[in-house]
Amino acid sequence: MRMSFLLSTILPTSAALIALCLPVGRVRAAAASADPAGDPLGDVVISATRLPTPESQVANSVTVVTAADIAARQAQTLPDVLKDVPGLNVVQTGGAGGQAYVFMRGANSNHVKVLVDGIDMADPSSPTASFDFGQFLTPDIDRVEVLRGPQSGLYGSDAIGGVINIITKGGNGPTAFTAGIEGGSFDTLNQNGGISGSTGPLHYRATIAHFHAGATPVTPENLLAPGEARNDDSYDNVTASAKLGYDVTDTIDLGLVGRYTRTDLRFTGDDYSTYPATPAAQRSAGATLQYYTRGTGHLSLLDGRLNQTLGVAYGSTKSSSATPGSANSYYAGDRVKVDWQADYVVTSGQTVVVGAEHQRDAIRQPITAGTDLNSGYAELQSTLFENFHDTVSLRYDDSGRFGGKATYRVAPTYFIAATGTKLKASVGSGFKTPTLSEMYQDYPAYGFFGNPDLKPETSVGYDAGFEQALPGGRLRLGVTYFHNDIRNLITNNASNTSYANIGRARTKGVESFVAYQPTDTVTLRLDYTYTQAYDAILNQELLRRPRHKGNADVRWQATDRLSLDVSLLAVGSFIDGNRDFSIPRLKAPGYVTMDIAASYDLNEMFTVYGRITNLMDRDYQNPTGFLRPGRGVFGGVRARL
């Protein structure tokens, strides 16, 4: 790491922030030490500022999904967790194990930063360096924070659309064991087990899960030749994860997290020997092996006013695909990242955050290439006067490949305590670095070559809105308008021989919600998102961005032991290409699905549960050419020992 670069980046930036924002009047307690008790606007969130902050002080739109939410919905994979989140369109090629990507506020699927316990989950070996949400199981998830809007001013590359921050469960208290097993439609059989607890200064949690879906129909019947039988998809996923913590002293603690995933998918590929392509008669095979780990050391000084964390992370992804009649493909890449962050409570209501990062990305197969990225950032959280909070962040990322890139974010919010109203706004910039594949991967047989002179994709975005809590706190509602202008998008050049920074896109829309708790045992939530996303050069809608999306969820704690959850998801029509893109643009129909889940506590140790997904057995595709699962019936048991 080039320490001179890091210091020259961080110190002037943080000094500028302090000079701009410190001379203020009376302030409240710093966000880092804020007590969320009594906060009428809900949760404490971390991802918006990199520090625990009451939601009423956060200007950005953020959705928090807890472990309790996941259990109530009985979501087994990450796409099932995210599909109802406002502002997101989750696309998955078929059922369990199919590639799954997220379009956030109309931005590209690789414009979302995904973090798991502080580990950047992007895959450097992927042509788009995207994260495949379809391979992530849920048993060890404690919470998911979905932060919408450009966040590169704090998180750097990829955060044009926003950030999805996944925090896994830790260990505390006496040793406890958990186990679960379920079965059901599509030849499903899932098992998981775990141990967690603490002893003295040691905290620990370990989880292992196996997901199997052996017979999921994915190929639409209208694509099959007359009399041709459909081959169902088969998927296996084994995931093991662990989290350790050790309190060396009252002011020093160490942490270690690790995650291992192995997947195998048998799927129907496409036969390109004809035009248009047709589903292949024989199944293809795909396999993925992922390993991620991060170690941290934390030091707290000055009675907790100064906190520093040093982290070292490593991630590796290997994937292969075997298709009858074609050459096998193999991809391998890894990422090493060193990060340091410090936060300092200057005065009550003034917290400065500074940090530095060094990242090394590499592809091992099918080519050998690598790139380095050095970064520094600074943030100031301020309470300028009572109930008026502001967050300002600046960041600089430097690479020898494309030079430096500065980004920013300003996010003020004002909470009117007398009426329970939060007024919020934010403006920020974003960027995404070119992928190693885009720069160096050549396809000479097709006359297509990488472009090492590519520049980062860039964006500027803003949003503004309000959230209102009515007296008693049983009814909350909110509306947010958003707008993003994305430039230098990497796309094919005019001759289709390489990539070039020639694309532009504009996205805008509205996110709204109503949350109502009519009784202590019933909660209701309605969400609606309107999105316009279009190519600013060709003036046409971008693919796979539905204009309309709405969902409703009702949760009822019927008795002390029985709980029920009913959810409805409605997605409007969208522009897409057909399965092999021989038809590059068509209007895909929208769809409505309903899920029902119930659980019953037999005693303090055992819970039985069941769910019906796609209750109305809707036949729908997202993306086009890949069936989503029809009606599914599942049941299982969970144990806590």
Automatic annotation (TrEMBL):
Its main location: membrane. Pfam families: Plug, TonB_dep_Rec_b-barrel. GO terms for biological process: siderophore transmembrane transport. SUPFAM superfamilies: Porins. It is found in: Cell outer membrane. One of its GO terms (cellular component) is cell outer membrane. Residues 1-29 form the signal peptide. Keywords: Cell outer membrane, Membrane, Receptor, Signal, TonB box, Transmembrane, Transmembrane beta strand, Transport. Residues 56-163 form the TonB-dependent receptor plug domain. It is a multi-pass membrane protein. One of its GO terms (molecular function) is siderophore uptake transmembrane transporter activity. Residues 185-615 form the TonB-dependent receptor-like beta-barrel domain. Gene3D superfamilies: TonB-dependent receptor, beta-barrel domain, TonB-dependent receptor, plug domain. Belongs to the TonB-dependent receptor family. This is Vitamin B12 transporter. It comes from Nitrospirillum iridis. The lineage of its organism: Bacteria, Pseudomonadati, Pseudomonadota, Alphaproteobacteria, Rhodospirillales.
